[in-house]
Amino acid sequence: MRGKKLAVLLLLGFGLLKLPMERAVSARLNQAELLSPFASLELRENLDQTAFAAVLGGLRSLVASVTYMRAYIAFEDGFWAEVDRLYALTTRLQPRNVAYWDEAAWQMAFNAASHYLHDKGTREYTRGALYQQYIDRGIEILREGLRYNPDSPRLWGALGDIYARRKREPLPAAEAYLKAEADGGPAYYQRLAAYQLLQAPDRESWVKAYELLRATYDAGKKFPSVIDGLHELERRLKIPPDQRIPEKASEKKAPSVGPMAP
Amino acid sequence: MKNKAPAPQPARGGHLSRILTLAGATVTQLLRMRILVFLLVVCVLMVAFGFGFPVSSPEQKLKLLKDATFGTLQIFSLVLAVAATALLLPRDVEDRTLYTILSKPVPRVDYLLGKYLGVIFLIGAGLIILDVVLSGLVYFQQQALLQGTEAMLRSEGAPEDEILQQLAQVQRVGLTWSMHAATWAIFLKAAVVTALALLISSFASSTLFTMVSTFLVCVLGQGQELIREYLFHGSFSVTMEKVVALLLAIALPDLRLFDIVDNVIAGQSVTWGAMASITGAALLYVVGYLVVAQVVFSEKEL
Amino acid sequence: MSEAAAVEVENLTKVFRLGVMRSAFVAVRDLSLRVQPGEVYGLIGPNGSGKSTTMKVILGLLEPDQGTSRIFGSSSLRVESRREVGFLPENPYFYKHLTGRETLHFYGRLCGLRGSELREREQEMLALTRLEDAAERRVAGYSKGMLQRLGLAQALIHQPRLVVLDEPTAGVDPEGSRMIRDLILSFKERGLTVLVTSHLLEQMQEVCDRVGIMARGRMVKEGPLEELIAVENQTEMVLENATPELLAEVRVAVARHAGASIVRSGHPRTTLERLFLENTVENTAAASSEPHEE
Ligand SMILES: Nc1ncnc2c1ncn2[C@@H]1O[C@H](COP(=O)(O)OP(=O)(O)OP(=O)(O)O)[C@@H](O)[C@H]1O
Ligand SMILES: [Mg+2]
Questions:
Q1: Most buried by CB count within 10 Å: which residue of A178, A244, A261, B94?
Q2: First-to-last C-alpha distance (Å) of chain C
Q3: Which CATH architecture has domain C7-231+271-287?
């Protein structure tokens, strides 16, 4: 009896002691981005009970993998609405995993959009509308992902890709590529931004493109596409001949600009 | 008296050797209950799961593999922590094995620590084995992924520094030291749960009760955030539920502090500082719960 | 000898609180007993009379509600008091995944034995309890009597000065039962102290120096066996080389006194069993007024 009372007192005393410790450790781990944000209400509503229990039990990553696989299977079957829903669930489970955002956006803006563009079963007018709608959905997904991962070069790069290759809007594409490069992404994003700026209608963009390509060239990366771009800009901007790069400096045979993520 | 019994011997065998003897018996017992076979089966299943599903990119494949194996690690350690502890202590009471043990010159605290260390040792050993297997698998997958990426980049004629940059990116989600740190965190969580299970079994009288209540406590510990949310949001009125919630928040550990593995899988790296703070937290929990367990157990009627 | 008593229980009361209502049940009430070093003390009594409970208090497995218990002068609440005690609980059970030998090894180590000394003791104990053939088998497969023998072996592994045996012969075959009786007699020879309970009263009568009879948690009769089973209103005379004439004279002398008579010649003893029944049945009958079959 004495012992039981003592035990309860000890437990409570110790419990009061541990509360500040828990707060400190939790703050520290959150700061190091080692703890996942707690399951939001929205997430709780979208997961079935087992999955929610697993998330609570610290198996969040595994649950995300499962929803991801289901999304992938839905993709193989071409159920696009389901693909969207499951990817949304996956990204919400692990919002800091950029690969999920990237792939979710790619599924929408590239695969789903293309699917509807070539879908014989849909009327011509609707096809175009759905095409645009899914591309916009891709952009929306990336913008949401960027809210959780504002400095992710991969997401900025993916956003640049959609603007460049699907929307054909050079200015936002270049902006996204530049952000990707600035946030520590591969150097080729700089080149990609320059090619986009090259396609813009205004002179100001060309100046910027010229600066970027010239810097790449001066850094020793004398790819044919860089040289071709520079020649084009030198003409457009009427650069004095003595400041131009020499003609035919390239030895390599037309390699592409660099690897593309998706 | 014809043959006078030997004079009282000086104390032989310290606490440590007794504790180790008890821990050793615990480990033997658990091993002979075929716990490792069970572990092996689960392991194979999970790895098969990790390899045998469709995924778009090798990167996702790597993540899935890690999810599956780390999931195994977590489930294994928690099941063992709850089941082994619940099976051991109340069983000893039920079977009256405790009579013969405690009628030897064995302080009750030695018995408790022996049991604790035995279970912890087994969990630790299991986790080390699983960690090695997991590391091997991930390394294997990662090499394949690296080679694939490198070959692709070279065929596209990407410059050397960019190739290295990309490969470093892959390595970040591959085999890292942080993965072992995550295993350590899983171990710490299991150590805390074991201490809790021991505390519960020190006053419980049946295996089933211990298991069910430890499981419940784990769920609540995992949902501490939910409890706090309930406590501090909404109305500030004092209700019975709120008092209960407050007591739970005070008495139970916040098990989510140890759930760093998700983010480690995603490529987050664990600093020494973070390691130190979760280790410290675990230590505090374990010492706290063991002290309470000893207080209860020391006056337990057998 | 000014040595402390091997076991000294004073005014022990043990109350169990049962169920949700915590209703009290007094298992042992105001019990005192002393076991001198070198003595074999038998505790007897009907089922549920509190014998095992008393033993558990002596071993420190239960805490007394009132009174004290000491072993060789050291309180039963202290771990040190158990250093020189070997205890065989009733229906002992062991880790069923260990073999008999491993079980002995385990208990030996708990007592601080090590290495070759421990191995020798294991072998000795297995031989003593005739468990050698089963030594490498898991305890899970042991029969009741084998468990009892193993329990005895583990109680003796560290050569204790005091042996506490709770029904050592329960479930043991007649041969084993005789073996245990002989063992207790050999303890007595070697100067060990034994506290034992049993329902085999004939055996108890053979081995005990002193007995205590318990009923309903109380000590109802206690003393040296010889005195207890002596018939008080009778006198025994042991004559040596008595001729028939002398015996005839004695008879005549007795006949001269009104009221006195010679009942029989021989050993004027009752059995421990009769004594037991007289004391315990009377006692329970007085309390519950229903006829009792013991
Ligand atoms: N742990 C316990 N909780 C509640 N009651 C108990 C407990 N242990 C013993 N008792 C009760 O105390 C009384 C004495 O029990 P004890 O085991 O000491 O009897 P005993 O004399 O050894 O009997 P037996 O000859 O059957 O072994 C019994 O009525 C029993 O029901
Ligand atoms: Mg008994």
A1: A178
A2: 40
A3: 3-Layer(aba) Sandwich (3.40)
